[in-house]
Write a structure and sequence with these properties.
Helices cover 35% and strands 36% of the residues. By secondary structure, it is an alpha+beta fold. It has a single domain, classed as TATA-Binding Protein. The chain is globular. The termini are far apart.
């Protein structure tokens, strides 16, 4: 009987994993930004702007949202910023230069992700682009 219960539990866990989908969020900024996808705890999308501009907008967004920036690194091809909320939730933002005027943005909030806060961060970044 224990084996049957374990198999049922395993099947339920696998089904839950495969049935959780992803959602797309459209965020419109001044530069006509595109669609962001939220999947497996990560918000991901592209900005029609150079890496330096997205980096500056990201730093300004963190300041406006009053998050504490823990670390930040940047070179000519990518950037990474780690911050904490007032409730000590970790925010990790990674920027990657795709082309001269296209930058990929990835946001992860906490260990498992948080779509609402990720969306708020994207909106804040886009207001500054």
């Amino acid at each position: 009987m224990k084996i049957k219960s374990l198999i049922t539990l395993f099947a339920t866990a696998v089904a839950t994993f495969y049935l959780t989908g992803c959602s797309s969020v459209t965020v419109g900024g001044a530069n006509g930004a595109g669609t962001y996808t939220y999947s497996a705890g990560n918000m991901r999308g592209n900005e029609n702007a150079v890496l330096d501009r997205v980096w500056s907008a990201t730093q300004a967004a963190m300041k406006d949202l009053e998050f504490t920036v823990i670390s930040q690194q940047k070179d000519a091809l990518q950037a990474r910023l780690i911050a904490r909320t007032a409730l000590d939730k970790k925010i990790e933002i990674n920027l990657t230069k795709i082309s001269e005027n296209l930058t990929e943005v990835k946001i992860r909030v906490g260990s498992f992700g948080e779509q609402t806060l990720s969306y708020t961060i994207i909106q804040s970044i886009e207001k500054r682009l």
